[in-house]
Design a protein that fits this description.
The chain is of the alpha/beta class. It has a single domain, classed as 3-Layer(aba) Sandwich (Rossmann fold). It is built from 11 helices and 7 strands. It has a 7-stranded mixed β-sheet, sandwiched between helices. The longest helix is centred in the C-terminal third of the chain and has 17 residues. The chain is globular and about 50 Å long.
């Protein structure tokens, strides 16, 4: 299977900006928008910490589909600065471990989580999804939200997720997949500036891979249509009004809108699709 240097993925997302600089920009933006930078709520942060198509509503929808319960342990693979993790902890009362390759993001995530008062429920670990630093059958739900597009070895990934999820637990996923026939993508897209760190499979291929790892499908939904509409509205709003103080651009910089336009083109041309799924651990 193709392999790449994990540092390329971290560098793509962190943009050579250190944790202190990212945190300072977020706290300044909170202050400028009239929010308390020392005690923000998870909702205050959601305009800039939900780095996936559909934003906060998509996170809450997936949580409902997965039937996550209070007190359960969720592993958020590739959870970045912890937006979805804080949303799950605050609205459900579950414990969430965020695993991410990018140490800069875990440092920012820890600082923001402490300020929201959710540090007892949300913890961060630097690590590789292909070598998860957790015990067998130690989590109730494995959660991936726009985080597997950079992983080539998907058989290994889902086998590792199967290892850490308890029998009867679940896999909840919300991802971008390749269009049928696996047409070539246009670049840049939000997860990759070029093909070197982008590894998409079709929805059917991904479902088969997940099943082969030992998960049984419970829910599968294609969200491409609503995703096209939502991205189009975001881009139109950004072009016609003053950009919001709190936005994803705090993490991704000026390149964000350009990469979202390219993602929209890929979705409209059938080169990529957006899906959500829930699978039970056999």
């Amino acid at each position: 299977m193709p392999r790449f240097d994990d540092r390329l993925v971290s560098e793509h997302y962190a943009r050579d900006v250190n944790a202190a600089a990212i945190l300072a920009s977020i706290l300044d933006a909170l202050r400028a928008s009239g929010r308390d930078p020392d005690r923000p709520t998870w909702e205050d942060l959601s305009p800039m910490d939900q780095f996936h198509v559909g934003g906060r509503p998509a996170t809450l929808k997936l949580a409902a589909l997965a039937d996550i319960q209070r007190g359960q342990h969720v592993l958020d693979v590739g959870g970045g600065i912890g937006g979805p993790a804080r949303a799950l902890a605050a609205t459900i009362g579950c414990r969430v471990t965020v695993l991410d390759l990018t140490e800069t993001f875990t440092q920012v995530g820890e600082a923001l989580t402490a300020r929201t008062g959710l540090a007892e429920l949300v913890t961060f670990r630097v690590g590789d999804a292909l070598d998860i630093p957790l015990d067998d059958a130690s989590v109730d739900v494995a959660w991936t939200q726009h985080s597997t597009m950079n992983i080539a070895r998907k058989e290994w990934l889902y086998a590792e997720l199967h290892r850490v999820v308890r029998p009867g637990g679940r896999l909840a996923m919300h991802e971008v997949v390749a269009g049928e026939g696996e047409p070539t993508l246009h670049f840049p897209v939000p997860w990759a500036a070029d093909p070197g760190i982008s590894f998409l499979r079709t929805g059917d291929d991904l479902r088969a891979t997940i099943a082969a790892a030992g998960f049984a499908e419970v829910v599968w939904a294609d969200l491409t249509g609503p995703s096209i509409e939502g991205i189009g509205e975001q881009l139109a709003g950004a072009a016609s009004a003053q950009p919001p103080v709190l936005a994803l651009s705090l993490l991704q910089g000026e390149r964000l809108d350009a990469s979202r336009r390219v993602l929209l083109r890929n979705l409209e041309e059938g080169r990529a699709r957006v899906v959500q799924g829930v699978f039970g651990r056999v």
